[in-house]
Amino acid sequence: MGSLLVPVPPPPSSTPPSPLLPGADRVLVMDAEVAPLLPPPPPGAGPPRRARSPRAESYVVAAFAVLAFVSVTLLVSSALQRKHTGGYSYGTSGRPGPHPPASAPSLLGSTPSSAALTFAVIGDWGRDGSHKQKAVAGALARAASAHDLRFVVSSGDNFYDGGVDSTADPQWRSSYENVYAQRSLVHAAWFAILGNHDHLGSVAAQVDYSGQSRRWTLPAPYYTQSFTLGGGEGGPDAPAPWVIQMVFIDTTPFVRDAYGKAARKLNGQSPKTQLEWLRGVFANSTADAIVVVGHHNMYTMSTSSSLGVPEIRAYIEPVLLTARDKVIMYISGHEHSLQHLQPYGAGGGSGAAAVNSGEVGAAEGRGKGGAADAATTSRGDTPVRGAAAGDGGMDHFISGGGSKLDSLSLPSPAKAGMWFQCCGVLALGGDTGRGTDPPRAVWGAQAHGFFVFEVTREYLAVVAYDEDFQRVYSYQRLLGGKR
After folding, report:
1. Rounded to the nearest 5°, which phi and psi values hold at 298?
2. Beta pairing class for 338-342 and 377-380
3. For residue 355, what pLDDT is reported?
4. Which of 61, 63, 277, 452 sits at 20 to 30 Å (Cα–Cα) from 318?
5. What is the phi-psi region of residue 109: left when phi exceeds 0, alpha when psi lies from -120 to 50, beta otherwise?
6. pLDDT for 233-285, tens place per residue?
7. Containing H/E element for 321?
8. Gyration radius of the chain over CA positions
9. Does residue 344 contact residue 329 with C-beta atoms inside 8 Å?
């Protein structure tokens, strides 16, 4: 399959119990009603009637009207939820709407499987099959068959709410083995990373499970895996082998919250050590293209969730940008939705990095592509020149729709600049007034589902599926090769 680079030995095999405690049940106590003692009615007489006042009748009519309105509203909402999978898509209009079918990227599947790396990414899933986890698993199984996936990537938060305690923890079956039990998934490799909730349990248990499972792969909290495409076939005129390096990182130790503290103190993860390792990986990489997977998102399109994580922008993003000629995308989870972001603009020459360094406008004329409508294919209009990512066109995908969802709330155009500066929130279409190729959100959906990626030496093709295996978004752009 490829070469495996493991940086550090696994952490200690035992950790203190999870600090999360179950909530106490609430008991509602009601006073008993005492019926008045009334004399029995005379024979043949019914109960005495009391005249109803006009005001009381109006109250009754109003109550029935409100009840009818609420019932109809709930029925309509339920019907829409069944029809549109419980979420909304955001495209160029910035208005939420039901998921329409998306056209498939024309490049998807156009390359022989031996010359393409096709994989799915699913995140934030481990909930004992609840919150539509099983439905998403069924769609993922269909995608594995339809696209002949090489492997599945888990973008973290594998087990809610507090990870697993050991390799014998019941959640291995209730949230993983028994949920992703379809034949196409059982025989697929799973490359996993850790999420913040996983650090509340035993990280060693998730690492050790790699030795007990033929598909679960987590050799260390952070590691790399390389894949070689092509080569060895077609005679002397055949193109040279093309190598893609997948870099799997552990972002939780960098975050200044209770989860980050657990990662550093309980599970012994050093942000400094990992950062030095990551710099070394990029400096010594001989790969033609690099894909980085971490749990926490750098940016977002929503003001209502965890926002862009500042520690990831402060520590991880600068290292990624040192290899921007090779890093073609950063994939995360953490936010429970599906999003496609371009923090460096459509052409990769400006965007967030240029804004922070005062280089806005230097990339004038690069990248003409606008934001993609949910029912269309978005294309990067600037072909890459001689390198995997050209001038640094690094896409950012959030694939966190594995089970329970977060809501999406877009920033208003009047406050788009403020949200970008404070919290890493990107406006749809780059509506921040920052240069000709501004940082932007391309598409997002409050939906259960996942992304499928196909990478070749010539192109990147992406498809998003919901839990009904309906294609809700697609995107493609050219890479270093020519067609």
Report:
1. -80, -45
2. unpaired
3. 33
4. 452
5. left
6. 666 667 788 999 999 999 999 999 999 999 999 889 999 999 999 999 999 99
7. helix 317-322
8. 26
9. no
3-state secondary structure of 403: coil
Between the alpha carbon of residue 481 and those of residues 2, 326, 383, 458, the distances in Å are: 22, 13, 9, 4
Would residue 345 be called left, alpha or beta, if left means φ above 0 and alpha means ψ between -120 and 50 degrees?
Answer: left
CA distance 245 to 285: 8
Sheet hosting strand 471-478, strand order edge to edge = 216-217, 189-192, 151-154, 117-122, 449-455, 459-466, 471-478, 377-380
Q: Which of 212-216, 305-309, 479-483 ranks highest by mean pLDDT?
A: 212-216
Going by their DSSP bridges, the two strands 440-445 and 89-90 should be labelled as antiparallel
Q: Stretch 95-114: mean pLDDT, rounded?
A: 74
DSSP code at position 198: G
CA–CA dist 166, 221 (Å, integer): 16
Spatial separation of the C-alpha atoms in residues 359 and 363, rounded to whole Å:
8
Report the candidate in 289, 315, 230 with the shortest Cα–Cα distance to residue 455: 289
pTM for this predicted structure:
0.75
- From the list 244, 324, 247, 289, the residue with the least C-alpha distance to 480 is 289
All residues at 6 or more sequence positions from 112 whose CB lies less than 8 Å from its CB, including other chains:
none
- In angstroms, the CA 96 to CA 434 distance is 25
Measured distance CA(274)–CA(276) in Å, rounded: 5
Residues in CB range of 54: below 8 A, 6 or more apart? none
Q: Retrieve residue 285's tokens.
A: 């990489």
Based on the number of CB atoms within 10 Å of its own CB, is 378 exposed (0-12), middle (13-18) or buried (19 or more)? buried
What stretch of H or E contains 228?
strand 223-229
Quick one: average pLDDT of 421-446? 82
Residues constituting the chain:
483
Residues 6+ apart with CB under 8 A from 52: none
Q: What is the bridge-based pairing of β-strands 223-229 and 216-217?
A: unpaired
State mean pLDDT over 294-304. 93
223 has a pLDDT exceeding 90: yes
Nearest CA among 477, 427, 431, 467 for reference residue 446: 467
